[in-house]
Amino acid sequence: MAQTPARTLTREGIAAAALVVLEREGLAGLSMRKVAAEAGVQAASLYWHVRNKEELLDLLGDALVADAELPPRTGGWREQYLEYGRRYRALLLARRDAAKVVAGRLTTGPHVLAVLEDQLDRLRAAGFADADAAMAAYLLSAYVQGFVLQEQSPLSAAEAAGASRGQAARAAGDVFRALPAETHPNLVALADDLTDPDMDSRFEFGLQRLADGLAALLRQR
Amino acid sequence: MAQTPARTLTREGIAAAALVVLEREGLAGLSMRKVAAEAGVQAASLYWHVRNKEELLDLLGDALVADAELPPRTGGWREQYLEYGRRYRALLLARRDAAKVVAGRLTTGPHVLAVLEDQLDRLRAAGFADADAAMAAYLLSAYVQGFVLQEQSPLSAAEAAGASRGQAARAAGDVFRALPAETHPNLVALADDLTDPDMDSRFEFGLQRLADGLAALLRQR
DNA sequence: ACCTGAACACCGTTCAAGT
DNA sequence: ACCTGAACACCGTTCAAGT
């Protein structure tokens, strides 16, 4: 019954196994031992290919953007920039805990580099100065990652135990409405606005503000 | 020698102990056992006051914004909004791993609520519609958290082992410059812009874009 | 009501040893 | 060169038992 040894364990294979474990167990449940098992190998074997867990997570982060589909190169820079943001968000939402993996992780993996290269190319072609193009790219990733991080996280540790986002939002709204109106009049008044569960609209709002801000930059050149 | 038992363990005391451990060991080193030891108690005792580690981190997240100083209520809404962003960033940078703690954590702790209440009050006074005020507040926190998360994280797992940000940035620039110019011409050309270690300027750039975007919103009412 | 001791089922990482 | 077995020093969490 001796299973034939993997013998072909590679960094790509490790990343693929990590993706499977991430989807099944979430980031909190992703251990070196489970990734190793998924790859058909002992935990200690991973350390031949990878310095530590942090480096494995770098691999995973790059693998997460491997199947990114770039927006069509049609229309103005603005529409392309918006589409970039929307697709990046969709990509992160599509995989469990993806934002948590990617958020504070500045990798120079091949897939990340390819996307960045393409995005910079479009921004420069649109007329942005070099430094502004670099900033615009950085800005978009910070916004999308920050947004999805909030979006993917449970509304509170208390609600983590089951409850749809709609229910959780209503519960959060109740918290606001229950506050004393003398001390927190604005929270009481805006309870509905603050807990609007339509995340697409919220995301789009911020994205449009970013694009507006960048557009102003382009006009004054 | 029997140390007098804590007897006065409270949620506030736990949060204070957690702050100390966070500063000393970082988020990765913050364990229930160490927080308990810092509070002069056994690990199991914490579970009387807190459901699990996640709830303890919620407490910690709220405690982190406890000593936030709100910007002066002078000048236009724009300057106040900018100052809000700058001070929030400074607050997160002042404490070790603060952005990681706070990032995907939607708490309704008292300190968080107080800040949000104040911010909404200013935005509404400036003439923003209710929904827009709620969005503007959400947008700022997503941006600042996303930005500082990148800023506080090591530039790459490889460089994590010592090396100033300036050095790390130069190393990252070398990575870009070393890419083949045929496949990654923009990364090669913008290597300096992409790795500019002046994070204050980068942050300010994004912040100004956000304010510009919101200003456009205000004009069209 | 609040805290402890002891246990359970895990972790990441190292390192000699195997092939 | 690559993988394993076994160990080390930890984890979060539970639960009977103490006061």
Can you summarize this structure?
The structure is a homodimer of 221-residue chains. The first copy, chain A, has 221 residues and is mainly alpha-helical. Chain A contains twelve helices and no strands.
List its salient traits.
homodimer; 221 residues; mainly alpha; Arc Repressor Mutant, subunit A; Tetracycline Repressor, domain 2; 2 domains; 66% helix; disordered N terminus; DNA-binding
Q: First CA to last CA of chain A: what distance? A: 71 Å
Which fold name fills CATH's third level, the topology of the largest domain in chain A? Tetracycline Repressor, domain 2
Largest interface: A-B, 72 and 71 residues
The structure class of chain A reads mainly alpha
Strand segment tally of chain A: 0
Oligomer state equals: homodimer
Low-confidence parts of chain A? 1-6
Secondary-structure element sequence of chain A?
A: HHHHHHHHHHHH
CATH class term of the largest domain in chain A: Mainly Alpha
Q: What does the main sheet of chain A amount to?
A: none
Q: Average the pLDDT over all residues of chain A and give the rounded result.
A: 90
CATH architecture of the largest domain in chain A: Orthogonal Bundle
Helix content of chain A: 55-70%
What share of the residues of chain A does DSSP label as strand, in percent? under 5%
CATH superfamily of the largest domain in chain A: Tetracycline Repressor, domain 2
Overall spatial form of chain A? flat
Number of domains of chain A: 2
So how many helices of chain A? 12
Radius of gyration of chain A: 21 Å
